[in-house]
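The authors assume throughout that readers already know how a fold can be written as discrete tokens. Each protein is reduced to its one-letter sequence and a matching series of backbone shape codes. I therefore recommend that a typical entry be quoted early in the introduction. For illustration, here is how one protein appears when written out as sequence plus structure tokens:
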Amino acid sequence: MELNALYEAIDARPFRPFTIEIISGRQVTVSHPDNILVLPNRQSVRMIQVFHTDPWEWALIWPDGIAGLFQAAPGSGNGGDRPGA
């Protein structure tokens, strides 16, 4: 997957929560732009870390393991459009 779609979702204003789908089928939701880190930076991505505070948990995602990402359509709660999928 091209990481540009991920960066667009992170940088969107206003921010809309989105979900990263991993090739294993697991889904990780990014609920706030401060809850995702691209390490060490966007020019040389080695891993992506997503944090959740309720309950406290985190996920490490390798860029090659991303199958796609999607955002719920405003007010729908159903997964909506799938940019970058």
